[in-house]
Amino acid sequence: MMTKINTSAYVPTELSIENLGENRVKINVYPFETGFGITLAHPLRRLLYASTVGFAPTSVKIEGVTHEFDSMRGMFEDVANFIINLKAIRFKIRNANPKVVVNYSFKGQKEIKGIDLINDEVDIVTPDIHLATINEDAELNFTVVIECGIGYVPSEIIREQINDGFIALDAFFTPVKKAMYDIENILIEDNPDYEKVVFTIETDGQISPIDAFKHSLKAMYDQMSVFRNLLDSNVSVQNVDAGKFAILLQSINDLNLSVRSFNSLDKAQIKYVAEIALLSDNELKNLKNLGKKSLDEIKNVMEEIGFPVGNLSSEDAEALRKKVSELRVNKE
């Protein structure tokens, strides 16, 4: 029998989802050509951890406490243990706000758990997690800042943006507890070498596993969007440079800047990457609330994407200003 010569890779057609319990699913996708399964599965696994939006406490202020190694009268735990317990509690902001500041007050003998932190602003998806134990003479008043984010942000970065009296926390935003995949062989048209990808995804309850998977797919599509012009039938090899500014026309969200750097740009009404490229070095330095660390970070990122600050030609700058103006009008 003559071996069939393919001119294109087999396109997967089958997708099934199996519920494995609360916040845990198995997703089967097949069939893939040999080697294609891991090509898809590995980056999706990384994106599940790195791009799925979650909520975490980023700082805390405790009445009567000056630093994280302090202790508090009437509370069994020292402040360091209180903070460890607080970081283990998984919050969920009830509305669309990216950040909330929540005040809590407890008095008298009580074991405080996650369920006791539920209010109109936040829900708790780990209600049984222990926070602290106070005695009958104690009064515990504290304020928690809860933010929306992705991945992990160390306390050193968060410390740059907090108010006096607050203790910065390491923020573990990702709601994905487990993201695994297996590659299995499957028989297609008498060929046993095709592959099935089996994802097993578990979240902490802030988001469903299916929604987390959808977010990772969107993140993958977004990352690939820079090549969109290459797929346009009207773009040839000779004029592919017409799409060289594609990354500059994206939102500053796509630069994955630190929270402090992003906030400084956002407060300056800078929405698109092009608006950074259009600034001179001095104009960037003079942005309000932009510290040296943020300045260096932004300049480094712009160099990495190939558009150092203040290096556009006058012709390119004029074209970009016009395009950004159009984008803003359409956005409004």
Structure in words:
By secondary structure, this protein is α+β, with helices and mostly antiparallel strands. The protein has 3 domains: 14-52 and 176-225, RNA polymerase, RBP11-like subunit (Gyrase A, domain 2, 2-Layer Sandwich); 53-172, DNA-directed RNA polymerase, insert domain (RNA Polymerase Alpha Subunit, Chain A, domain 2, Beta Complex); 244-331, DNA polymerase, domain 1 (Orthogonal Bundle). It is built from 10 helices and 14 strands. The strands form 5 sheets. Strands 1-2-14-13 form a 4-stranded antiparallel β-sheet. A 4-stranded antiparallel β-sheet has the order 5-9-3-11. Helix 1 (36-51) packs across helix 4 (209-224). It is flat and about 80 Å long. The termini are far apart. Mean pLDDT is 88; it is low at 235-242.
Order of helices and strands: EEHEHEEEEEEEHEEEEHHHHHHH
Task: Please compute the radius of gyration using only Cα atoms.
Answer: 25 Å
Spatial separation of the terminal alpha carbons: 63 Å
CATH superfamily of the largest domain: DNA-directed RNA polymerase, insert domain
Q: Which word captures the global form? A: flat
Please name the CATH architecture of the largest domain.
Beta Complex
Summarize the model shown.
The protein is of the alpha+beta class. Helices cover 30% and strands 29% of the residues.
Which key terms come to mind for this protein?
332 residues, alpha+beta, Gyrase A, domain 2, RNA Polymerase Alpha Subunit, Chain A, domain 2, DNA polymerase, domain 1, 3 domains, 4-stranded antiparallel beta sheet, 14 strands, flat
